[in-house]
Amino acid sequence: MGGRTFLKGAAILAVSGLVAKLIGAAFRIPLTYVVGAEGMGLYQMAYPIYAFLLVASTSGLPVAISKMVSEKMAQSDRRGAHRVFVVAFRILFWMGLLSFLILAAGSYGLSLLIGNPKSFYSILAIAPSLFFVSIMSAFRGYFQGLQVMSPTAFSQLVEQAGRLGIGLVLAVLFMGYGVEFGAAGAILGVTLSSIVALLFLVWVYVSHIRKARADHRLSAKRGFELSNRQIAVRIMKIALPVTLGASVMPFVNLADKLMVVNLLSRTLNPQSGALFTVSEATGLYGLLTAYVNPLANMPSLFTVALAMSLVPAISESMAKKDKSSIAKRATAGIRVTILIALPAMAGMFTLAEPIIGFLYRALPASEAFKAAGILSISALGIFFLAMIQTLTALLQGINRIMVPVRNLFIGALVKLIITFLLVRIPGVNVVGAAIGTVSCYAIAALLNLFMVRKYIKFTSRLRDILLKPALAALLMAFSVRIIYNFVLVRIGDTHDSLIVAMAAGVLIYLATLLLTGSINREDLELVPVGRKLGRFLHKMKLLK
Questions:
Q1: Angle, nearest 10°, between helix axes 402-422 and 381-397?
Q2: Closest to 345 in 3D by CA, of 285, 296, 291, 305
Q3: pLDDT digits (tens, 9 = 90+) for 118-156
Q4: What does the alpha-carbon distance between residue 343 and residue 475 come to, in Å, rounded to a whole number?
Q5: Biggest alpha carbon distance in the chain?
Q6: pTM score
Q7: CB 397 within 8 A of CB 314
Q8: pLDDT, tens digit, for every residue of 338-377?
């Protein structure tokens, strides 16, 4: 894969991930009308359990597969790459089956533990998807290792589209039997859509293998350096630290869930002068987790896709001992991360209040104001979270797998301390949890950056990569606020003013990047119609 091609793979994953998110949002909106508040509550009781078990069983293995497959491909050992997939497939098959059986067997007990026996049907309905998604992750890891991202991207879209269509239909059909069955029908759509997506990946895999058999026979003459057992051991050595790292933030979020409401309940409400009630504390926590965090985490969709492409790309260069390629790919990955994360951070920080008002129109004015304040702080973490994801991928690619786990753990400890100290301050309250999260990301990102610079020599100085985009983002932030206020005074509509300001901000940021030479034709190829736009700007002598 060329020095820039992995960025195109990241772009494919990012676009598909964004579309999948939109489909997911499109699913939840009508679902609320079908199953109501109680049904959504039952849905939400089952889904986080599934998500946690899924992280535990599959988060590290696709990374391990893609890394080892890319290393074999770098050695022109296609048969060896396929053997990695076969061994990993067996591991994921049994892990998925075990996870499914554990959740299915414990579904009734879990429903009692979380306080609502009606959730039993939803938990039972989603349990089989653990098996199918585990197998899916083997195929996705294999194709990512080949640095072919389209199967992963399209399977995500198939999965989400199936969830939208199948889940809504089943929810409508089952609601006649009771709200618990309506919620179970919606969540059964998750299981059935995972089967559809898996069948799609199997079809792509079979087509690929038919074409690759000749290459496998040729590479068979190389012999095998590792037995199946040794391959399995190496896969787990890579996967376990990655899984541990992926589990840090869910555990911290769980600690947040246990800490924040309890701490707020012992804190004075500045407005009333009395302690926050449990209801008020829960409401503030809901503003942070249900309204603000999804927005602050949205830009990471692009950097997660970039990280998925970087791991096999860097691993390939490591296998070839090509330090020059490692440096070029690492520099390109960090540069693109900065170009994406800085404007997202600046824009969300500057326009926090109108963004909250635009997206959550039903939110009372007082709560919208509080949410905007929380978002303006949480927005500062966007840049650091994006850097964590990219730098973690670089460290995984160069076989420093435990380093980002350790650094994130240090950041998480700092977050818990800061949250504990700040949430109890009446004038800070829930904002303290947001400050703690930003601090966590900042510390982990800086520690990761220090370690990456220790092992990888960038092709450009970091300050040169950072300075021009930072100035462009700063100019954009000042401009969009002025434009928003100007348009608001003229037309009096906050929503239209926000749209105009955001569109202007994108143009100002891109224009500043062009004028300062911070973007080139290859960067534009990552976006739709970017190639044509790049040629046009090159002719106009606005682009290198």
A1: 160
A2: 296
A3: 888 888 988 898 899 899 989 998 998 888 888 888 888
A4: 10
A5: 79
A6: 0.81
A7: yes
A8: 999 999 999 999 999 999 988 888 778 888 899 899 999 9
